[in-house]
Amino acid sequence: IGGATIKNCIIHDGVTIPSSARRGDEFIAKSFSVHSDMEVLRGLRLLKGFDLQRWRISTLAEQGSSRKFYRLQKGKASNILMLSSPEDKDFERYVRLGKLFHRHGLGAPEIFAHDIGECSVLMEDLGAEILYDMMSPSVKERAYRKVIEWLVNFQLTAASNEKLFRRTVSREFDYEGLKWETDYFRDNFLIRYLG
Fold this sequence. Notes:
Elements: E1 5-7, E2 10-11, E3 22-24, E4 26-28, E5 33-35, H1 38-42, E6 56-59, E7 68-74, E8 77-83, H2 91-103, E9 111-115, E10 120-124, H3 140-160, H4 162-169, H5 175-193
Parallel strand pairs: 1-3, 2-4
Antiparallel strand pairs: 4-5, 6-7, 7-8, 8-10, 9-10
């Protein structure tokens, strides 16, 4: 288990978990695992074609706002499922931008399917490595250089397709938009996280 990331799991006796594994919210036995949200996931229209008993489902530790992310794995196949709350006003924008970014090679996963009614998205799994984990002194500079290169590429691509990006984003960062962003930072980081 050394090196594995395991959060909120019950692990049965005799189970070996690879050191690179990231598992969350599961009961893990030798030959199967059951996610704590299995009943919710079974009810999703987006997953109707999936025999979820055959897929290993883990909650991703990295979440975003009120969104929940799950990794669905079966053999070498791996997908990411995102669930948003019905109050997520940015859900449809998330889907539009995700498709646009992927189409222009801007590092976004391919969106295979989405359901606006249940605020769910099934997308490509880009892997378990996250930028924060790469921040060891030996790779920090290389990782930051990659991020800066990606940002420059993003800006150049957006500038050369300005009308398309503006129409797709359709969000003004006026006083109200910026106020929402700063209030979100204050409420979630300063108050809830830092106390």
